[in-house]
UniProtKB/TrEMBL annotation:
One Pfam assignment: Fer4_12
Stated name of the protein: Anaerobic ribonucleoside-triphosphate reductase-activating protein
Organism: Heliomicrobium gestii
Gene3D superfamilies, per database record: Aldolase class I
Keyword annotations: 4Fe-4S, Iron, Iron-sulfur, Metal-binding, Oxidoreductase, S-adenosyl-L-methionine
InterPro entries reported in the protein's UniProt record: Aldolase_TIM, NrdG, Organic_radical-activating, Radical_activat_CS, rSAM, rSAM_sf
Family statement drawn from the similarity comment of this UniProt entry: Belongs to the organic radical-activating enzymes family.
Cofactor(s) it depends on: [4Fe-4S] cluster
Origin: domain of life: Bacteria
């Protein structure tokens, strides 16, 4: 299965707890003012890879404590990211998702989209919502603006409502 990415790093300290591999989705519809990753917006930009290649790169990073899907917008390629998530969770790694959509929007979408449902149900954390420049806050861990929440993803899916992992 193919996936379109802006890139992969294996030494991130800012996308969740510990040292992480971060997989950056290519393509984002949110157009947040002040976005730090404008090169990820074009859905035809970046590079197309096989999911197997991405997994091999993550496997080689023996020093990481977890994996993060960021963007861009991972939920625009929910089928490929759900496949990646299945394979990563099978190895027991902690998984963080970033999305410019709120949990409530994704929950609604998950009712008609099994890949969105699976992705949210597999992940440990979901950092949700767009970056809002007027709510920018540099001191927040793992987020850029105060509207964004760190949620317990699979527990929130089971409960049908947003459950915070940390303030
Ligand atoms: S969701 Fe993220 S990548 Fe997309 S425009 Fe907003 S800040 Fe940029």
């Amino acid at each position: 299965m193919k996936i379109r990415l802006a890139g992969i790093v294996t030494d991130s300290f800012v996308d969740g707890p510990g040292v992480r591999a971060t997989v950056f989705a290519q393509g984002c519809p949110h157009q947040c003012s002040g976005c730090h990753n404008p090169h990820t917006h074009d859905p035809l930009g970046g590079v197309e890879m096989e999911v197997e290649e991405v997994l091999a790169e993550i496997d080689r990073a023996r020093h990481i404590q977890g994996v993060t899907f960021s963007g861009g917008e991972p939920f625009e390629q929910a089928t490929a990211f759900a496949e990646l998530a299945r394979r990563i969770k099978a190895t027991g790694r902690h998984l963080v998702l970033y999305s410019g959509y709120t949990f409530e929007t994704l929950l609604e979408r998950s009712r008609n989209d099994g890949d969105v449902f699976e992705l949210l149900s597999l992940a440990d954390w979901l950092v949700d919502g767009p970056y809002v420049e007027s709510l920018r806050e540099l001191s927040l861990p793992f987020r850029g603006s105060r509207n964004q929440r760190i949620l317990l993803s699979k527990e929130s899916m089971a409960a049908g409502r947003a459950l915070q992992a940390m303030a």
